[in-house]
Batch of 2 targets.
Target 1
Amino acid sequence: MKIRTIKYIVKEGGVNTYRNMIMSLASAGIVIATLVIAGIFFLILQNLMHSANELSERPQVQVFCDSELDEFQTKEVEKKIKTNSNVLSTEKVSKEDNFKKAKEMFKGDEDLLEGFDVNSFSVSYVLKLKDTSVSSDIAKQLEQIEGVTRVNFSQDLINFYYTLSKWITIITVILLLVLFAFSAFIISNTVKLTIFARRKEINIMKYIGATDWFIRWPFIIEGIIIGLFGGFFAFVIVMWGYQIISNRIEGSGFTNLLAVGDIWRTVILIFIAVGTLVGAGASVFSLNKHLKV
Amino acid sequence: MVEFRGVSKRYPNGTLALSNINLKINKGEFAFLVGQSGSGKSTLMKLLLKEENPTEGEVYVNNNDVTTMKSEHVPYLRRNLGIIFQDFRLLPNKTVYENIAFAMHIIESIPREIRRQVPMALALVGLSRKANVYPEQLSGGEQQRVAVARAIVNSPSLLIADEPTGNLDPENSWEIVKLLNEIHQRGTTVIVATHERAIVDTMKKRVVTIEKGHIVRDQQKGLYIYEDKNY
């Protein structure tokens, strides 16, 4: 295909979109509506996945050092803990903090702590693990470190978080796939309707001697323009709504949502990709039927 | 230029539209295909455009066997033909100028050539002043003249017109026939399918009469004669 023909085809795509303004706007409207609905679900599911990830990162294991250890020895223990490849992060809890916690725990029964002071308590480390399914193995490894007296972990709780996070992720992925298949179906049907309305035009082009691709390309360009336009506006609407809602929810301190800054790139990429690819793809497939002349 | 060798066409519903047609139209000829509605002349035109395939026989256009032609080559066959239809078949979303230029864009003509040829074709059909209007703003006669301009803009050696005056009043019909004759005078082979007796009788060209799928008469400087008893 010659450059001048490519230029002509691109121009045709643009001009046709403009001249078929009502159909173009109707198609773009459907793309926007579909992507907004899909986008709302997408953001809900993304936040669920985010929560699932946070759940799986909850403090899972607490390592207590010997109360006799000095600061240097404690640091050595910390170093050894960190060498374990399954440890994601460590957070030190000082003797003072552990003492304070004990006092809070036994509030009203302070006499039980009689005879204990700060030095009776030990330094501990709260660990986050990379893979929670092997917590018990890691606990056993950590118990072997010199200076460690006790390792606390609740396998039931860990298992619960792990299973919950796994299922949320699976369900989210399935729902997202269904959602995008649904969007693709709606958008492609709209494009099919647009093309059906112009089947006579396609027919005429064939009679004059246009090749199938010469006819297809301007329609593909139209599909891309409509998809881009629809995808962008759907993005603006969804992110604007998300910003408002997330501000309100954050204000209430209810939960920790994904920040707009963390998610907008993914959303715009998905919207524009779904809009343009489905718009262009649907043009190709729905044209075939009318090209057999 | 155009040849039908033992061509028969039976549609899937069992209708026999053409039966053993043998016809040759030479370069530079002007031929009318005449016959009543349903006689088979439109099927004959469809075979020329490879819109349909014959059940039997061979069809040659410009020395190419259309019967065995692959579908991807069909656009190239049609580009070498000027085609005019009864219902004009103009692109509704394009201006008169763009409709004619479209035929040149298809063959990837250079823009300078398009800017030169389209106004010439428009001038020939007397529509220079209507270049920027849309088909729906034109009368039927004007729309058909645009279709003629589009058909000749690439200077085809063969012009095929299927009932070109079928949707026009007598005055406009004559305008179109005069145009076709003018194009013929310039050396183009012209085949016109029609059932308008007055036009055929006045033009005194070759007349091929088709009735019920058979060629019943083929006369130079002929007349449109419809006699049921002839076969």
Note: The two ends of chain A are 23 Å apart (CA to CA).
Target 2
Amino acid sequence: MTLLITNVRIASENSPDLADADVLISEGRIQQIGRSLAAPAGTRTIDARHRILMPGMFDAHVHFREPGFEAKETIASGSEAAINGGITGVVMMPNTRPAIDSATVVANVLDIARRTARIPVYTSGCVTKDRHGKEMAGIDGMRALGVKMLTDDGDTTGDPAILLRAMQYATGFGMFFASHCEVPELAGPRALNEGLVSYRLGIKGSPACAEEIIIDRDIRLAHAAGAHIHIQHVSSKLGMETIRWWKSRGDVRVTAEVSPHHLIFCDEDIGDFDTNYKMNPPLRTKADNEGLLAGLIEGVFDLIATDHAPHTPFEKSQDFVAAPNGITGMDTALVSLYHYFVATGKFGWDLVVKRYSAEPRRLMGLPVVAIEAGQPVDLILFDPEAETTFTREFMKSKSRNTPLIDQTLKGSVAFVMLGDAILLER
Amino acid sequence: MARKDLLDISALDREEIEHLLEQSIPFKELFTRSVKKVPALKGKSVLMLFYEPSTRTHSSFEVAAKRLSADVTNFDVAHSSITKGESVRETVETLQAMRTDYIIVRHGRSGLPGMIARQTKASVISAGDGAHAHPTQALLDAFTIKEKFPDPTGRKVLIIGDILHSRVPRSTSTILKKLGVEVAYLGPGSLVPRTGPENIRRFTDYKEAMAWNPDFVYLLRVQMERQDVQYFPSLREYHHLYGINEARLEEIRSRGLYLMHPGPVNRGVELCDAVMDYERSLINDQVENGIAVRMAVLYWLKPGSTQ
């Protein structure tokens, strides 16, 4: 297929300015970028005036629930939700049933992905068998199938001695560790932040220190082991500052991610027990929102990741304590980043491309895609002048547990193309 | 305005609260008559759904409903399918099919009555949910205080004990604030949250709290059953620091303070035996007033159509 996208504005991770150009695509590659390009005969032309062309996003933290919880999500439905949101690559978390803790399960997951997903789906693997924190998982077998990230996500690897030894063991294989940070003894029923809102609702909260203690612990363990540690979904300002301090030392490889919902929402939004605002780590305060945003702009956070966590309407309609933790993010992430931050001038498209497309691929050791001549096609068109209403029908995820349900936000993912295939066009 | 549910006292405005408290007065007057029953809710059905043990709240609601001539059914949680793993959601769907008019719920989980209310046409009343709300307790406390001070504006209530785990101070302080009453909390630092409401004074020292000059001393039950970890070293130490012993009772008596407690009491922990005979103890008034305000609430709420 030969395609000419004209009058488009190109975003890149290197500059906040958008470059006006035409882009000629054929045979799955960007052939030419320039002004007033001539279209060869038979070329389809898209007039993309006002639209923004950028590489596809990459989400390094998603729960696709297959195998084991297919009522919530499958690899097929999750990857369609990704495409719906302009995301062209993902890393699955291993808290499936069975947990992704051996070569057998990794092979099974990758096989399902190959057969059912239209985008590349990668998976992380467990640090410990069944995420129990007792015995190490089958690390080398998973490595042989391409697993790079080890994590017991959903829980902290409780025993620091096991984690330290696993770090010492796997670092030489080129693997790195990702940590969900939480002291379980401090976290109560793991429902919401400890503060005025938890007091008002009468549910024991999980204090920010429960997270911050493990952020610090796991970076220290990586420091001792010479390992690379990636801190997942940081929710507190003091957690961000802990990471900043360790990064400033320069003697441990630490990366970190922040989720859109921790930038946008706070615990006050829970209102009258709205379970669509329940996730773990929980929404904290407005001051944390601001601290995390400052950390993202400053570069303390290497990447943005959604922690896409689908649950069925029945599960989420239970009372606030019984309802499971997590919200979906694939369908909504990019539009919400535009609506809340780019459109309001908090940061530019360069930050979005860098933190949600380039850096997550670098973390995974994958080639970074860019809108440049000679690059393989992995791109999206974003329409800043359109709006998106996140109705049930709009969502491609099997679940719709998001605070943005039925909300209308500025911006729309208009077009997604990967290789020679147009995956989305609206 | 008619409401379908009563889940949390904070949802009511002052006018509604005053209305309910006024409506409670004629109901209370009934109790001194030989026939204590009125036909107000004749033909209506009330379902009691108590997932937590309760003596006084359960019987108070039951008596209130029967004095209004409603039919009362007790949903037997202990012998229900709940022990077979049926979720509350599924139970609610069953109850909805029974077309009951009022559901009175007590549950250990905060917010659970609200979840039921959203899924049923019946009027749902929280009879205590987790550490969240106990709206009829708040009403009976306010009623009891207003019997002593018809205009309670500027009066002071000191609530002593386990603020963290108790729904009573949350609801009762909310209603008292709406009526212009000042509220302070006293208890161990581990049980009086630092992040409580800003308009409530917080004490950890008994003497300092008494120097604040309260008109009412409101003791909370020390909720041993709700403590997932230890919050203070021992009951003996708690009694020593915050319990109303004989000496403290003498001071309370000499200052003419009223004493309240939502029950059931732990003798020797939050109070000593002698407190039960204190002439300004309002504990029994609270029980009697509880029936009156619950009648007023049942009479006031308007269930959705159950046809």
Note: The longest helix of chain B spans residues 283-300.
